[in-house]
Design brief:
Length: 204
Amino acid sequence: MNINFQNAKFEKSAVAKNQYPDSGIPEFAFAGRSNVGKSSLINKLLNRKSLARVSGTPGKTITINFYNIDEKIYLVDLPGYGYAKRSKEEIAKWGDMMEDYLANREQLVQTILLVDSRHTPTAQDVQMADWIRHYHERLIVVATKTDKLKKREIEDRLNDIADTLELTEDDVLVPFSTADDEGKISVIDMLEMMRLGVILPYED
């Protein structure tokens, strides 16, 4: 039975594993730099305007936020990285929390990396890609904010992202825009298939 993505609710925020949901349903996490658009992507997938809080202040989200989707999966908004005004202590805490979640969370099916389509992935994006590859069989990347590019620029930007992150034929790259529906169905289909155990990339 398909997931009803409009039957969604914010369940909880967590900073430690003893605060994570204990329902056991599959989790799909979104990782990326601060202000890359994780909350906006979640809202777009759920056809909501503000279920996931979109902040104008980069780096504001320092918790792991769990969204219960139709009692079938969780979408998990991970804290953004790369915010220069964070203290060394905050950065260390972020790293420990992320490492523990990625390494030890049994319900985590896939971590999806978000990068800004307008820019070459940073060293921290590359590091996160390496983390994801370590804990998952493949790298899934969503290139956000494609609506801010001219159409003739998109292919070159996607090629740059693929080259910088060293994507292989086993990896997935999805262009995404919250201004229209580009990428929305692709991401939803991927989540559905991964929940059912279908191996990506998937070709009909």
